[in-house]
Amino acid sequence: MQPTGRALPVALDAMGGDNAPGEIVAGAVQAVRERNVPVVLVGHPRVLYLELARHDAVSEIPIVRAEEALAMDEGALASLRRPRSSIAIACHLVRRGDACAVVSAGSTAGVVATGRLRLRAQQGVVRPAIAVGLPTLPQPTVLLDAGATADAKPEMLVQFAHLGVAYAETALGMPRPSVGLLTIGAEPEKGNKLAKRAHELLAATPGIDFAGNIEGHDLLTRKVDVVVTDGFTGNVALKTVEGTVRYAFEQLRETLAESRVARLGGMLQRARLRELAGRLDPEAHGGAVLLGLNGTVVIAHGSSRARGVAAACELAARLSAQGIIARIGERVATTNKSHRRW
């Protein structure tokens, strides 16, 4: 157990991600040295020791042995086949109180399945949800579920709303976040059976500032603070936004290089362009958060490099310190009092 008075470390899955373990270990070193976040690496000791030695950080970051690792192309069933994987051991450290949170850049399906199996859902939570911050101003817009629960029931979307509100209040300091339901039209009767019934339930739920339906073109307009949908729709929407942002920047870069006048204009707007690039860069924000489990879990982008991994570790440590689990527990208790169990 961690000595009294010292912050618990973040358990970092060092074997998960497209750039593991090199960039993962480099991110751990950045988290410790530049962000003052304690980290414990979980993975193959010999490999991780050599990576730490490259950064002269062997004495700064402990290693916990894990015999196996989930490949990036492995799905949810791999969590059952590999009980000694690095993500499973990381979750175990949180469960027994030796770490404050889990961070992984591994397979999202594997992280979700392993988290549900090892950490278990919080009391009253039927399904967890992945929350991501969309790059809006003046604050991010929280979108969930971004892929944890593809086939959701209407009552689950109400619970997702409570999870999203708890996240917005805790992580972003929003005093009364507004909630919108993502569907195909602003009118209450628009959408499939799931959306229509979810709209009825959300409109009648106490403790939720429900603003009604929103459409896909509203995602980046800051129309609401929290956007709720099922995991299938949310994942498609998120990847569409990411692809659109990437395409827009590529086109902007080509346009600025077309002529001397364009290059001059780009130089004059350099500060604004850097600010915009930073705001839209997923590496700067740490990643998605898996909400509804008995432990804080942050899922970094699979292609994360050192900076993104360090940001994910900082986000995980901050959410744990801010009591996100307790805040969700309060919200879920409200949900279960307002609606019948399903």
UniProtKB/TrEMBL annotation:
Statement: the UniProt record of this protein carries the keyword Protein transport: no
Main location: cytoplasm
Signal peptide start-end: none
Pathway entry: Lipid metabolism; phospholipid metabolism
Enzyme Commission number(s) from the entry: 2.3.1.274
Annotated PANTHER family: FATTY ACID/PHOSPHOLIPID SYNTHESIS PROTEIN PLSX, PHOSPHATE ACYLTRANSFERASE
UniProt protein name: Phosphate acyltransferase
